[in-house]
Design a protein that fits this description.
197 residues; mainly alpha; 2 domains; globular; disordered C terminus
Length: 197
């Protein structure tokens, strides 16, 4: 994704990202307040519209440096903030150590991306990172649905499965990207293989 020759940050993609940032904040307020249905709806909207700003920016040549930084930042706020919010809620299934793993992994990948791309390499999103995001979103949605139906054993097991699968893939992807980044640091000619999200 190349940056536009027009450096203006006042464009549709950045506006969409700003809206998603506002939705992320709303989710973090709604969940601890016990408004699980509203939090679920807002989370789904925020997470499912992730592709819109990037698609618009590429299609209409409105990619900016701000957008390249702000968009992944908002993605991380949505996921990390929601996991942290769920820790506060009894019965969500999300423990503090799980949220710490999610946040720690995102901080690690962000640091690796800055180091690799600062050296001229490529650390773009990979399929593994995208599947990690899908499982994390699934875990959040399943946890919120469980909170709305606390006595449902089937939902409890479904939420358990999504949550542990998300945590496992989060750890695996963090290790995998660390190895890829290490290869890129040792041999810059292979840095294009070091991908993350």
């Amino acid at each position: 994704m190349t940056e536009s020759t027009n450096p203006s940050i006042y464009n549709v993609p950045n506006a969409l990202t700003s809206v998603r940032f506002g939705l992320a904040i709303a989710v973090m307020v709604l969940i601890p307040s016990g408004h699980y249905l509203a939090g679920l709806i807002v989370f789904i909207i925020a997470a499912s519209t992730d592709w819109m700003d990037g698609y618009w920016a590429r299609k209409y040549g409105q990619v900016t440096k701000l957008g390249r930084i702000f968009d992944p930042f908002v993605d991380k706020i949505i996921i990390c903030g929601t996991f942290i919010a769920l820790v506060e809620v009894k019965g969500s299934g999300v423990e503090s150590w799980m949220a710490t793993i999610v946040v720690g992994r995102e901080l690690l990948v962000t640091s690796l991306r800055g180091m690799i791309e600062g050296a001229g390499g490529d650390f773009s999103a990979s399929q593994l990172g995208k599947w990690k995001m899908v499982l994390q979103c699934g875990a959040v949605i399943a946890s919120l649905i469980l909170l709305l139906n606390a006595e449902n054993d089937l939902l409890a097991w479904l939420s358990f499965g999504f949550l542990w699968s998300a945590i496992a893939l989060t750890v695996y992807s963090g290790v995998d990207y660390s190895r890829a980044a290490a290869r890129g640091i040792r041999d810059p000619s292979t840095s294009s293989d070091a991908q993350g999200e």
